[in-house]
Amino acid sequence: MRTPRRLAMRARTVRWRFTALYGAMFLMSGVGLLVINNLVGLWGTQSSHAVSPGAAQVQPATFEAAMELNRLLQAELSQVRAAQSRQLLAGSIVALAVMAVVSVALGRIVAARVLRPLRTITAATRRISADDLHTRLAVAGPADEVKDLADTIDGLLERLEASFTAQRRFVANASHELRTPLTTMRASLDVAMAKPEPVPAQTAALADRLRAELDRVDRLLEGFLLLARSRHGASSDGTAFSLGHAVSAALDARAADVSDKGLTVHDDTVDDHAWTRGNPTLLARMIDNVIDNAVKHNHDGGWIRCATRAEDQRALLVVETGGPVLDQGQVALLAQPFQRLSADRTGSDNGSGLGLSIVAAVAEAHGGGLDLRARPEGGLRVAVSLPLTSAQAGVPA
Fold this sequence. Notes:
CATH topology of the largest domain: Heat Shock Protein 90
Shape: elongated
Order of helices and strands: HHHHHHEHHEEHEEHHHEE
CATH class of the largest domain: Alpha Beta
CATH architecture of the largest domain: 2-Layer Sandwich
Number of strands: 7
Number of helices: 12
Helix content: 55-70%
Structural class: alpha+beta
Radius of gyration: 40 Å
Largest sheet: 5 strands, mixed
CATH superfamily of the largest domain: Histidine kinase-like ATPase, C-terminal domain
Strand order of the largest sheet: 2-4-5-7-6
């Protein structure tokens, strides 16, 4: 059943506005024709009864008889006119009702025909995404307002494609170029520390700190490269990938970190139906980032709950962690690059702020999405939704 809200939204569409406009125009035309028809009919009736044919044939004997005959003829003429008026009114009402239905139908047909090019442009524009900006509408036809709109959209897509391409190229080139001096700095530091002379304690401490900072910058560059690659358009046509297997592998790889922080892990990824399809390297890195976020930004003695399931043609991964109550407005920003919560809220000040933004980019590149929620009891809920596929479609991850 259609709700009043849906009907109200539908009534505000351009097609229905055009239908009402054209229908009203057709209906007013019909009303005008009926009014003219009624006026002509009444005038014709009056003209036809201006002279009664019976009066010319009957020759009254006296004046009183003539007056009585005239009265009778006038009464008969009034009855005839009243009957004709009722018939004309009834016919007009029926014609008006039919004209109203015909006007709405004609208005809808005309509106649909007028809006057909716009619907074609809308459908084509929806098929064009950030990963398919090279496609153009290329609407053929006369140089009218619709073609001008399509050409304007094509120009906008061309500028967007150039902008996205330049941005991705800059990020990739800058990340590659910056890795060369980082490698040189790390090699020089290792050579300096490997000299046979005793190294002062302060120098050794400084070297360890520099190595840590270099590793942090290296991870940041790696995140840049992965973010650029995921946004470059990882096709969802790839290898079948099991979310449950990947989560179990990620937890096993981080067993030492989990043990060091005394975390309790609830692994509910026994559902083997949560499969998707795509680039296995990017999908594995996406899940690694989710698990890393749950482990690193967790308090000592905390807990982690992981679950995968298939629901409504979607493969879902849900990772929950405990902790203090978080602000939903700040949590919603974590999917953007370089957005982090403060250390007193997360239990850690490490990280580049790219982890969850990479998760969001990889999920979107595979036709999915990332949902971040602050749990009312405290902590964070991370949910990744991806298109569901069959486990028999490929090899497990």
